[in-house]
Automatic annotation (TrEMBL):
GO terms for molecular function: NAD(P)H dehydrogenase (quinone) activity. Residues 1-21 form the signal peptide. This is Flavodoxin-like fold domain-containing protein. Residues 72-204 form the Flavodoxin-like fold domain. SUPFAM superfamilies: Flavoproteins. Pfam families: Flavodoxin_2. It comes from Sutterella wadsworthensis HGA0223.
Amino acid sequence: MKPAIPAVVLALTLSALTVQAADSISGASRRTAKSAAVIPKNIDAVTSASVVPQALRQSVKPNRFSLRPGVKRVLFVVGDPRSESVEWDLVNTAMKHFMDKGYDVELRDLYAIGFNPILTRENFYQAKDGFGKTPADITEEMMYVRSANFIVFCYPNWHDTPNTIVKGYMERVFQKKFAYRDAQNGLEGLLKGKGIFTIMNAGWVGMGRGDLGDGLPRAAGEKSNPIWDKYMTAFKTLDDDTAAFWGAKNLGRFVNDQTPGNLDEDYAAKLEQLRSDLRRHLDSKFSLKP
Ligand SMILES: Cc1cc2nc3c(=O)[nH]c(=O)nc-3n(C[C@H](O)[C@H](O)[C@H](O)COP(=O)(O)O)c2cc1C
């Protein structure tokens, strides 16, 4: 009698065949560098991610929170590992704009500071109920949040929600007894008087730039477009709920899904248009004087 093929070997073989079949259909392997450890030199030509040409990249240094009386403070919480991205260009543009308008700006670059976004079993009850000692890394972040009048969350659209590192910041920093507490009639938000805002670069959310109502019309006479508005309504639902939980005000979003192509000949002009659209949007959302 032939020996039976162990089930585990069969499963592994079938799984390898399925992966190979999917790969040959998608052609993914042919598009990828042989070694994933080596990033191609012409990354801007081969990646589907945005890469701002070196000459156009800006480096903006936040002026930090000075606690000068009468000066409003904006905290940028950024979750993007790529400084060459359009997302980071939007962050830099926004930080500079607020500073030009006389605001104090503080930046928490979550990848750079190595923020740990994971709510573990060990710190679950501390975050959920406020039991025990707040972890030191969270105490520091609370200081920034407490001092801020506005908190701007910035992340590229990775599956339509805050990406992991930013979501983890929300879960771990905006905890009970800091952002909300039990009150007689349920939960009470503790961050009253603060505003939250989101800056998100996207691959495709129906085509548009801005917020609800700012979709690219698809036909003459159309004001926005319903697909874009469907996405923006979903984001607004999420942001309104998050803000309400914390007692803060949701000031909305700047979403962009009209990113210049990396190799566009008129890249500089398109980037400048994007930057000025963001500045105008911030003027309107934050009632900044133009
Ligand atoms: C893990 C991952 C998931 C993504 N999911 C979405 C998505 O759900 N919707 C979308 O519009 N774009 C999605 N994208 C595409 C990015 O939003 C797009 O590449 C965009 O340009 C990101 O901004 P950036 O280039 O400035 O980083 C995803 C990208 C990654 C890496």
